[in-house]
């Protein structure tokens, strides 16, 4: 009987990531050549300055490690890339693939009320989340639970979401027509007809079906707007089967994560939506909140990414049975940077803040039973971390 030989670990395993001061390993021949080329007393190379980044949102791709050094969060990737992050500015941190963090780094992120999410390498799957807890919003969560028990009270809130979604799609198609695209059937008129039908739906299920019809009609105009070599066979999710669907899904994931962070900052339960049904593992309320914003930050962004050559068909990996089509390792960070810039240039934080504020106003109008109303803590202390106020946000485009 032979002894069991342990399976060798890959260099990308968390335990085998190099320390932050380590350099990528050199071959034996390269080390010998360097030793022969330099005299023993030659000075070493000057240390490279580590770039510093002060931003509210950061996307970090692994394999890499996070540590705390002199009060600054230090990102060290296995390929030698380094970055210093300002904890006083950081509000949301997205980690893709194998990114480990020291205990000091995690403690600092908690102390500065940063929301941290760990995702799969391609960003399609949420693995874990670390977010601050807010006890002052208990009365809001109690009202969310009341909505789940009273479907009749959910319908008006769901109707408002569907109306805003359809109106945003109609605006976008009208914008395309003003720029020269004409399509048979007059999609804006058809979308507006569906918009007016929302007020006659008697249940949330009917509203979901109406939103599905409007989205399908919109994607017909979307496909006609795409330029070669891009093609769009129709919306395909879980998993996406082509590059355009992959970009639509990834853009939607990025937007939902923005909403998720904002809702958690308000102390809400993101799993309890009004239009999207409760499903374990899905942030249904975040999916509700982004519906009025999807036309700009998902569909319009994807269209511009294709037609303006921000990405190319060669930037995608072949279709995988489980994960579908996704961006390759080189194109993925570029896509994230483009989406972030697009989100800021189009007032994404302000628009999202206003949508969340509207939902909070509707939620506070939900009555609680007397015994719950008397014991619920006040909301005056607030839960949002320091940052721009939702009340200062400019109004989004009118429906």
Uncertain ranges: 1-46, 385-399
Shape descriptor: globular
Query: Pairing-aware structural class of the strands and helices?
Result: alpha/beta
Give a quick account of the main beta sheet: strands, pairing sense, barrel closure: 5 strands, mixed
Assembly form of the protein: single chain
Q: Mind telling me the CATH superfamily name of the largest domain?
A: CRISPR-associated endonuclease Cas1, C-terminal domain
Mean pLDDT: 78
Count of separate structural domains: 2
Name of the CATH architecture of the largest domain:
Up-down Bundle
User: Count of DSSP helices?
Assistant: 12
Q: Whole-Å distance between the termini?
A: 75 Å
How many individual β-strands? 9
CATH classification class of the largest domain: Mainly Alpha
Q: Could you estimate the helical fraction of the residues in percent?
A: 40-55%
Give the amount of beta strand, in percent: 5-15%
Q: Please trace the helix and strand order, writing H or E for each element.
A: HEEEEEEEHEEHHHHHHHHHH
Q: Spatial order of the strands in the main sheet? A: 1-5-4-3-7
Measured on Cα atoms, how large is the radius of gyration?
Answer: 25 Å
In the CATH scheme, what's the topology name of the largest domain?
Four Helix Bundle (Hemerythrin (Met), subunit A)
List the helices and strands and how they pair.
Layout: H1 28-37, E1 52-53, E2 57-61, E3 64-69, E4 72-77, E5 82-85, E6 92-96, E7 99-101, H2 103-111, E8 115-119, E9 126-130, H3 138-149, H4 151-178, H5 187-197, H6 204-225, H7 243-265, H8 284-289, H9 294-307, H10 331-345, H11 348-364, H12 370-375
Parallel strand pairs: 1-5, 2-6, 3-7, 6-8
Antiparallel strand pairs: 3-4, 4-5, 8-9
């Amino acid at each position: 009987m032979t002894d069991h030989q342990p399976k060798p670990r890959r260099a990308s395993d968390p335990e085998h990531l190099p320390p932050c001061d380590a350099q990528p390993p050199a071959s034996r021949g390269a080390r010998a050549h360097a030793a022969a080329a330099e005299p023993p007393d030659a000075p070493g190379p000057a240390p490279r300055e580590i770039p510093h980044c002060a931003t509210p949102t950061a996307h970090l791709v692994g394999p890499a490690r996070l540590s705390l050094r002199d009060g600054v969060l230090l990102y060290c990737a296995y390929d030698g890339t380094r970055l210093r992050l300002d904890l006083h500015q950081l509000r949301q941190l997205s980690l893709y693939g194998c990114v480990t963090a020291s205990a000091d780094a995690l403690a600092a992120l908690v102390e500065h009320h940063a929301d941290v999410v760990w995702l799969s390498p391609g960003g399609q799957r949420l693995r874990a989340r670390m977010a601050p807890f807010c006890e002052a919003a208990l009365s809001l969560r109690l009202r969310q639970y009341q909505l789940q028990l009273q479907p009749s009270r959910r319908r008006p809130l769901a109707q408002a979401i569907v109306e805003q979604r359809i109106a945003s799609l109609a605006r976008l198609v009208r914008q395309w027509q003003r720029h020269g695209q004409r399509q048979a059937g007059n999609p804006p008129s058809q979308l507006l007809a569906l918009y007016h039908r929302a007020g006659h739906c008697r249940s949330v299920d009917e509203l979901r079906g109406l939103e599905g019809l409007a989205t399908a009609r919109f994607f017909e105009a979307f496909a006609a707007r795409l330029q070669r070599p891009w093609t769009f066979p129709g919306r395909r999710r879980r998993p996406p089967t082509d590059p355009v669907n992959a970009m639509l899904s990834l853009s939607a994931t990025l937007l939902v994560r923005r909403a998720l962070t904002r809702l958690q900052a308000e102390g809400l339960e993101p799993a309890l939506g009004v239009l999207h049904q409760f499903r374990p593992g899905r942030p249904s309320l975040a999916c509700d909140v982004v519906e009025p914003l999807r036309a700009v930050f998902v569909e319009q962004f994807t269209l511009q990414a294709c037609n303006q050559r921000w990405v190319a068909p060669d930037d995608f990996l072949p279709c995988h049975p489980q994960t579908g089509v996704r961006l390759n390792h080189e194109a993925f960070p570029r896509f994230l940077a483009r989406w972030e810039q697009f989100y800021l240039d189009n007032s994404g934080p302000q628009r999202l803040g206003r949508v969340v504020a509207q939902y909070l106003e509707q939620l506070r109008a939900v009555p609680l039973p007397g015994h719950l109303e008397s014991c619920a803590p006040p909301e005056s202390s607030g839960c949002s971390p320091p940052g721009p106020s939702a009340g200062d946000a400019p109004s989004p485009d009118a429906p």
